[in-house]
Amino acid sequence: xxxxxxxxxxxxxxxxxxxxxxxxxxxxxxxxxxxxxxxxxxxxxxxxxxxxxxxxxxxxxxxxxxxxxxxxxxxxxxxxxxxxxxxxxxxxxxxxxxxxxxxxxxxxxxxxxxxxxxxxxxxxxxxxxxxxxxxxxxxxxxxxxxxxxxxxxxxxxxxxxxxxxxxxxxxxxxxxxxxxxxxxxxxxxxxxxxxxxxxxxxxxxxxxxxxxxxxxxxxxxxxxxxxxxxxxxxxxxxxxxxxxxxxxxxxxxxxxxxxxxxxxxxxxxxxxxxxxxxxxxxxxxxxxxxxxxxxxxxxxxxxxxxxxxxxxxxxxxxxxxxxxxxxxxxxxxxxxxxxxxxxxxxxxxxxxxxxxxxxxxxxxxxxxxxxxxxxxxxxxxxxxxxxxxxxxxxxxxxxxxxxxxxxxxxxxxxxxxxxxxxxxxxxxxx
Amino acid sequence: xxxxxxxxxxxxxxxxxxxxxxxxxxxxxxxxxxxxxxxxxxxxxxxxxxxxxxxxxxxxxxxxxxxxxxxxxxxxxxxxxxxxxxxxxxxxxxxxxxxxxxxxxxxxxxxxxxxxxxxxxxxxxxxxxxxxxxxxxxxxxxxxxxxxxxxxxxxxxxxxxxxxxxxxxxxxxxxxxxxxxxxxxxxxxxxxxxxxxxxxxxxxxxxxxxxxxxxxxxxxxxxxxxxxxxxxxxxxxxxxxxxxxxxxxxxxxxxxxxxxxxxxxxxxxxxxxxxxxxxxxxxxxxxxxxxxxxxxxxxxxxxxxxxxxxxxxxxxxxxxxxxxxxxxxxxxxxxxxxxxxxxxxxxxxxxxxxxxxxxxxxxxxxxxxxxxxxxxxxxxxxxxxxxxxxxxxxxxxxxxxxxxxxxxxxxxxxxxxxxxxxxxxxxxxxxxxxxxxxxxxxxxxxxxxxxxxxxxxxxxxxxxxxxxxxxxxxxxxx
Lengths: 430, 478
What we know:
The complex is a heterodimer.
Chain A: H1 3-14, H2 25-39, H3 56-59, E1 64-65, H4 74-77, E2 87-92, E3 95-96, E4 109-112, H5 113-116, H6 121-127, H7 138-145, E5 151-155, E6 165-171, E7 176-178, E8 181-186, E9 191-200, E10 207-216, E11 221-229, E12 235-244, E13 249-256, E14 261-270, E15 276-285, E16 290-299, E17 305-314, E18 319-328, E19 336-345, E20 351-360, E21 366-374, H8 378-385, H9 391-407, H10 413-429
Parallel strand pairs in A: 1-7, 2-6, 5-8, 6-9, 7-10, 8-10, 9-11, 10-12, 11-13, 12-14, 13-15, 14-16, 15-17, 16-18, 17-19, 18-20, 19-21
Antiparallel strand pairs in A: 2-3, 4-5
Helix pairs in contact in A: 2-7, 8-9, 9-10
Chain B: H1 2-9, E1 23-25, H2 32-41, H3 46-60, E2 84-86, H4 100-108, H5 113-120, E3 123-128, E4 131-135, H6 138-143, E5 147-150, H7 151-157, H8 159-165, H9 176-184, E6 189-193, E7 203-208, E8 219-224, E9 229-237, E10 245-247, E11 250-255, E12 260-268, E13 280-290, E14 296-303, E15 308-311, E16 314-317, E17 323-332, E18 337-340, E19 343-346, E20 352-362, E21 366-375, E22 383-393, E23 398-407, E24 413-422, H10 425-433, H11 438-449, H12 451-454, H13 459-473
Parallel strand pairs in B: 3-7, 6-8, 7-9, 8-11, 9-12, 10-13, 11-13, 12-14, 13-15, 13-16, 14-17, 15-18, 16-19, 17-20, 18-21, 19-21, 20-22, 21-23, 22-24
Antiparallel strand pairs in B: 1-2, 3-4, 5-6
């Protein structure tokens, strides 16, 4: 792929961006991002960050921003609705669908970004685009160039959202590029559960390029469940930027089943003493899917705690990539960080590339990481068979159990059960 | 406490001196003419000149690698003299005829060659700058058919072997520094163990960089035929200079069916002073090919010197059931930078590899482990175990781990573990309670930390390595 086609891919995507300059913060942010996209190129496998993920299947296609919004009825989205989630925002091909959404305006604000802009201008202006740096990331820059609307969750000091909040992003149209955006600001001492859910009602190729920013204040708690179940022909590029403060706890679980090619970047920064994060990840791919997860946990201040566990289940000719970077900056003493990357290969053609990476610049820290790649243990399969299970059932059960360890971390039982069903169905199919 | 440690780390380099010997040095700069000059000086056959020129042409198209976690000003390849040899003298009949200046140098390094060689039963092929000047125990080795000589001699006496294997493991276009080495290498060691022969003694080469600003480009080639076994030791020191010296060696190992090669290195080149001025740039390509079934290649390294180390001794496990091993201790202090690790490429069935890496960083240094484990689709039953432990001494240094794991066979089993720790106050207190001072305690803790690697070293090296770490860390622990 030449530099010229690289440029034109980005330029073509940029063509349909919102151009109206309303003189507000969002317009200014867009202008900066547009400029940045112009300076960046589409990454290729010569870039260390994209070494194992060749995105030429994506750049060979062309995508347009959505022209006419698809009208969906409540019945259309019924399979995705979670009864447990009290409030919900629905975006169809990146466009807010108010008739399907149940926003909240109590002490906890759940609203579309555009609608909240006049009232929450200060919060939005300070936080939007602050954490999700786009200087070196073409896809994040592209998303920011399109930022116009999105999901906003504001938790004032001490606010507790008892019920989970569901952000549902539905892809419905062929060859459409959508740019969903999320902004969650959790004030001091607040607490919430957010489900960021990507689903599809089409079997055609499309591109979801999404960015989410999660800012946790002192002692805030956020349980963030991110589910990617795009169509098997779809492309998904996602970026979550999280910042944790003193005493706050971020508990993220990201689960990916779908998309022909998916890439998820999670950047976690501990900005004050004593923040804590727990991150679980599960990627389950088959056929010729590729799932790439890149995470960075950046401990910049002392007394940080991070626990990360990432698992991949790879069948068919699929490929899973995991790059988990943990940085302990100078002075971030007494950091305690653990990371594990476990990978299960189910077929001869499956492939895993994993790189758990530690960069440590402080001496009084405890950091460990581990990685394993292998198939199911013959002993374990034999054990189950000796108790009367068929070979297929034994394998399916063990594979399921491998994935369930991550799914168990999801506190929303309805969602967890559905995802467990998905894993079980996939293992039985394999 | 910390001042004791400070003093520990700051012990000056003991091997800093320049031997005053006339040397026949090429003018600075690199061009086809330089290569022809080297080749003519060494009276080389045409095929070798062609090999060099081809490498040079390819090298011109390459750029220095930038991916490693090391930072240094760009090297001016035209400011280096590519050939430096002690003036040719008449053939020496015995050790007594060796230049006394030279012998004195070895004396200072603690290698009384004539005695040590005999006492330790080690054949020492001494590389002084770029040309071998003395080789011992040759006759004894020749008895069993082992060829152990400088590579220049091998080019003249055994051209068919050199031509067959030179560049077969590290091709001329492999990487920037290997390309440069292929074009301008001056000398190095050649070792050939014929079928079924177990080498009766450990083979050893003593490297030493001497003339100021003459980069060294050694080339080592070791071939173990079917069923052969050899253990090879390489130890390095260099005198103290303020200008950075470039060292770009290439080591190639070939193990045929059932052969076993063990390659051990202790590297203690000048690392620059405590402000990071001077020191050697050590950009080395080392690779072993387990070509035959059941073959085994084992790398053991203790890296304590050099301003910058860029080195990844690798194993290509092509033969079924072949085994690759890598044991490493890398210690950095002051402003040293090390980016070192290994590559284990599993191609054959049931191939196994083991990686044990211990990194110790002190002062303002930066120590990175970078490793690749690749399991090719053909390597069913492959097994890898990696362990990378880092220890930080002080809060100004860095320790990084970059393990790349690339698995394309479901029957393979790959495990990687890494941890980071420090020498705790409570540990030192425990020692103090028992009347052991901080310095000795640190030395004991470090030796315990590195035990898994030191166990792999031949006896004399293990003793030397233990001492070396103690010396290097004097004044840094606290």
